[in-house]
Amino acid sequence: MHSPLPLYSPGTLRALEARGIAHLDGDAFALMARAGQAAWRVALKHWPQAQRLLVACGPGNNGGDGYVLAKHALEAGREVRVVRLKEHAPATPLAQRAHDAFVAAGGVVTQFDGAIGDADLLVDALFGIGLSRAPDEAAAALIRALNAHPAPLLALDVPSGIDAASGSAAGAAVVADRTLQFIARHRGLRTGAAIDHAGHLELASLELPEAVFDGIAPTALAYRADGLPGFFPLRARDSHKGSNGHVLCIGGDDGSGGAILLAAEAVLRSGAGLVSVATRLAQVTPLLARCPEAMAHAVEQPAQLADLLARADVVALGPGLGQGAWGRGLFDAVLACERPRVLDADALNLLAASAARLTPADVITPHPGEAARLLGTDIAGIQRDRFAAAQALCEGTGATVVLKGAGSVVASIGMPPAVICAGNPGMAVGGMGDLLTGCIAALRAQGLGARDAAIAGALLHAVAGDAAARDDGERGLLPSDLLPRMRRLANPMRR
Which of 202, 218, 234 marks a domain boundary? Predict the structure, then answer.
């Protein structure tokens, strides 16, 4: 199993930086020199033909990194222009030293006058990890000019305007083609708005030893497609359907039969041995016509659930459930049972309106709108800090949480949050959440704990979506397009 990538917050990154400086006998400028040189190497690697560079430098040490890069480019025979805002004169001793070295080498620093001019490569060295507010208007104007320029853009450490802790953008933010992170990976660049701003991510360790990280735990973990096989070991040759779990899917009110069908199909394609469906009578015949492997039951009253709940290992509640009397009755019955549960869609809306408390064995999968209702806030508040929102949901409901969206965040009590580094905009279509509910429920039924099932299910779902998008594009992607890919991905070690 590939280990997840450790991610760090600005606070832990500063601690790592301090240790790096200590490793270099207290020479902070030596660390800055390594950062600037690493940035120049990345520029050469990806844009070797770039002869005209424009480096936008801020007042702090991120600007200092930019001055070091500019000096290397100048000494390599490139045409280099460094621009800064009037109020962005070097404000730290390190930035001043880097600025002076660039000028001593023949470099010229000019104030931004509203135009970028000709350039083959742009470098963003404005703010780095220290900015957690919206840039002021002067900085925003420079950022907008950088974004409007046709040349590729390399951001140093963090695209300016992006919060390195949360991934949000409070105002104008650089849209980079590539972002070079220093020392360690930033957790904020893997979720939310940052995904549209960071471009391709690279890491420069600055040649610091592993000992620098001793005792400094990551503040999040990134799961990528290469980590998926570890969640799906080979099955025993003598296994049977009962060995692989029985999931009960509940939902499909009048007009919403497709939602519970998709959830049931995802359960089966993700490897559960048995799936039962409790739904409206009107949904039974079309469900069986599409998926005869499902055991469909017409349930019109909550009391009819008792035997089905007793036979199930895991309950998936919510797809197409509705918020009427029928849905509320089934919701109450499931909340009273002692089976592990996966709640989505209207089950979450009913949860938000109730005083019910879940358990760490349960999983909820809200999108930002559902998360906002559960927390009594708005979508903007959720997206402002997706890590904080996921943790608040976890603490507020007691359940393991999958906060869906670009860079889905998985939160569970006592563990660092996980970020799902897969998925694409084509998956923003009705029915995708129903598949995810089925995926997670199937993995719970096969013996994974709540956190592992949430991570593996979200990753399986997202990677299947990426596979489908590679084949035929993002627009027009349907949830059912993922089903055959989910099966293949759930069998990475087949004999």
Answer: 218
